[in-house]
Design a protein that fits this description.
The chain has 6 helices and 13 strands. The chain has helices at about 5-10, 15-25, 115-120, 145-150, 185-190, 225-230; strands at about 25-30, 30-35, 45-50, 50-55, 60-65, 95, 105-110, 130-135, 165-170, 175-180, 195-205, 210, 220. Strands 5, 6, 7, 8, 9, 10, 11, 12 and 13 form a 9-stranded mixed β-sheet that branches. The longest helix is centred in the N-terminal third of the chain and has 9 residues, at about 5-10. The two termini are about 25 Å apart.
Length: about 230
């Protein structure tokens, strides 16, 4: 990566202003002053701005977070704390959620700075499956699984939902697997059959599972196999 592009990303200012900072002798590489923004960075180079070392981010990053209730999946929100509160990584503000969860929904959230990768998860064209553990207000009707398999009509929408798989755990709990990402889809699907979701927890996206050992608010890097499982 060119030095001026790297500094622009790190400092959040334009390349024109980066040129001014370089001329002002504020940037060093491996302890030596550098004035040219065209300098090609090596992975081993140690870049410092006004004496403070800047961390090089090489390649894309992929994380799995067990989201607690009460946090939003946007990177900036004036009213609520965001999931970035839990991410202790350099330049965490560059990460985004690949498939958001509601404020009151818990469980698996994937974070990355790879836009193409997250698009494969969220785009309806790729039919990436997501599984949710659902807690309901009323007992599940006997025909609910068949209705979800056939597709249900959501309020305000023209097309039926795509076939979804409902695995009933007990009369108030079930696992629902969907391959779409419509607005509040799981809650609206149960509302369409006369029930109400009181708690929602995402357990799976594609081939990526949320392990029980990961406590709410904890996160980890994805493995190569997990990253490739949604490609």
């Amino acid at each position: 990566m060119r030095l001026d592009k790297f500094l622009s990303q790190q400092l959040g200012i334009s390349r024109a202003l980066i040129a001014r900072e370089l001329r002002a002798k504020k940037v060093t590489i491996n302890g030596e002053l550098v004035k040219s923004g065209s300098y090609k960075l090596d992975p081993e180079d140690k870049v410092a701005y006004e004496g403070h070392e800047l961390v090089q981010i090489l390649g894309f990053r992929y994380f799995l977070l067990n989201k607690p209730e009460g946090y939003v999946c946007s990177t900036d929100d004036p009213d609520h704390a965001t999931i970035l509160y839990f991410i202790d990584e350099p330049m965490s503000e560059k990460l985004h959620a690949a498939g958001r969860l509601d404020l009151d929904t818990t469980g698996l959230v994937l974070l990355t700075d790879d836009g193409q990768w997250s698009h494969r998860i969220t785009s309806p064209r790729h039919h990436c499956e997501k599984t949710y553990y659902v807690t309901l207000e009323s007992p599940i009707a006997e025909d609910t699984a068949q209705q979800f398999e056939n597709g249900v009509q959501l309020h305000g929408e023209k097309n039926l939902t795509k076939p979804a798989k409902l695995d009933i755990v007990d009369e108030l709990h079930a696992r629902l697997t969907i391959s779409e990402g419509r607005y509040h889809q799981v809650k609206r699907m149960f509302a369409a059959v006369g029930n109400r979701v009181v708690a929602l927890h995402r357990e799976r996206i594609g081939g990526i599972l949320l392990e029980p050992e990961l406590e709410p608010g904890e996160y980890r890097a994805l493995t190569e196999e997990e990253i490739e499982s949604v490609l």
